[in-house]
Amino acid sequence: MAKAETLKPRLPRGFIDRRADAIAAQGRMLETIRQTFELYGFEALETPFIEYTEALGKFLPDLDRPNEGVFSFQDDDESWLSLRYDLTAPLARHVAEHFDALPKPYRSFRNGYVFRNEKPGPGRFRQFMQFDADIVGAGSVAADAEICMLMADTLDRLGLQGQYVVKVNNRKVLDGVMAAIGLAGDDKAGQRLTVLRAIDKLDRLGVEGVRQLLGPGRKDESGDFTKGAGLGDEEVGQLVQFLGFGKGTEGPDASNAAYLGALTSLYPEGLAAEGVRELKEMAALVTAAGYGRDRIQMDVSVVRGLEYYTGPVYEAELTFPVTNEAGETVRFGSVAGGGRYDGLVGRFRAEPVPATGFSIGVSRLFSALQLVGSPLLAGVDKPGPVVVLVLDRDNIADYQRLVSTLRAEGIRAELYLGGSGMKAQMKYADRRGSPCAIIQGSNEREAGEVQIKDLIEGARAAESIASNAEWKAARPAQFSVPEAEMVARVKEVLAQHFP
């Protein structure tokens, strides 16, 4: 007979597996974020992975490809459903659906996975976790200032003091600049969005890469071509000059007030001037609360790539250097961002509903904490389970009883469920990180005893034992106790190694 065909184990592109250590470390990070958000009065909300595609509407990543950019499928009633692209559109749907029952302003936080049906690459995944905080129902920029202060405090509590800056801009400023170069009006909406997405790549692609995307387009390292916004050289030059405003002129005494004062002289009227006025209000609020420009700074280069932002936009950027794939020293970049989106909830209701919020890229922030060696990720050294070996399979119920006795006393324990002999079982216990193993052969069972093997102490002793004869003679860190004393003696072993 031909050998049966077997499936090749393959992880889909753009997805990752994570094991226990990474999950536990990330859990500690998420708990710190949650506690900080609750300190600001935000409450938890959970929304499903799937929404009606129409709820995402024109804010899909690619308008011309309904099943690209997002993962979509048809339900049995022929309605189109999509895996959520972010956590903001589901929030807008939830608020609109329960509008009268919610306190307003409504402060909520959510965390969970989002999905992007896009080309994967280094650091770009199709499934990744976000952690969001939003205020719905507050039209004042005081809400935006509150969000920026929350971003700063969250990074501080994660141990990144002095290694980040929260940068703030206002879409009205950039919209005013785009209007001045002929990109006003509904017929230019698609071109404006292309400009926004191009500028949003400034940190990753640099000025030259953004120039190409503002003009005819750009070919990346793989040969893929991204169509540009089609602007002329003069318009591209004006936008690039705007993005560089204030760069290289700041000293140790620089302030948000001075930066915005200089910006006012460039845009004394119109939509851009309105945006600058709102930035001044925010700057006054964060300054009064004790946040200097070293933590929260006004910066016109921040745009955010999504279309639905209507006012202030912000990003938390880590400032410490890292080495990229080309061996070049670069800044780590953004780990969180957001802004005001006053039109999103209003799509479901007749009246406008103001809203603002931000999202943390959990995986990216986790990578940053790993790079700086955050003690938060190290956590507390945790022992593996105590493993009860099975030497006599006809009496497996007796071994199960020993396991249950340990668990009843709050000791993490497991019964060996494989089919191997004692030597292999001991190797298994080592791989599980077990602090000790419980051994009971027929002689011990008849005597009402068990043997406890301290695997940690045994490993230390083994380093000084030269021969197999010495090993058998010493039987390091292995001792017999009555079954009634098993729990107490196991607790002694655990206390010795994990005080």
TrEMBL record:
Location of the Aminoacyl-transfer RNA synthetases class-II family profile domain: 28-383
State the compartments where it is located: Cytoplasm
- Catalysis: reaction(s): tRNA(His) + L-histidine + ATP = L-histidyl-tRNA(His) + AMP + diphosphate + H(+)
Keyword terms of this UniProt record: Aminoacyl-tRNA synthetase, ATP-binding, Cytoplasm, Ligase, Nucleotide-binding, Protein biosynthesis
Domain of life, source organism:
Bacteria
Task: Return the InterPro entries for the record.
Answer: aa-tRNA-synth_II, aa-tRNA-synth_II/BPL/LPL, Anticodon-bd, Anticodon-bd_dom_sf, His-tRNA-ligase, HisRS-like_core, HisRS/HisZ, HisRS_anticodon
- E.C. number: 6.1.1.21
- GO MF: ligase activity
Q: Indicate the segments annotated as coiled coil, or none if absent.
A: none
Would I find Protein biosynthesis among this entry's keywords? yes
Q: Which Gene3D superfamilies match?
A: Anticodon-binding domain (3.40.50.800), Bira Bifunctional Protein, Domain 2 (3.30.930.10)
How far does the signal peptide extend, from start to end residue? none
Q: Which NCBIfam families match?
A: hisS (TIGR00442)
Q: How does it assemble?
A: Homodimer.
- Which PANTHER family does its entry note? HISTIDINE--TRNA LIGASE, HISTIDYL-TRNA SYNTHETASE
Q: Which family does it belong to?
A: Belongs to the class-II aminoacyl-tRNA synthetase family.
Protein name according to UniProt: Histidine--tRNA ligase
Give the source lineage, highest ranks first: Bacteria, Pseudomonadati, Pseudomonadota, Alphaproteobacteria, Hyphomicrobiales
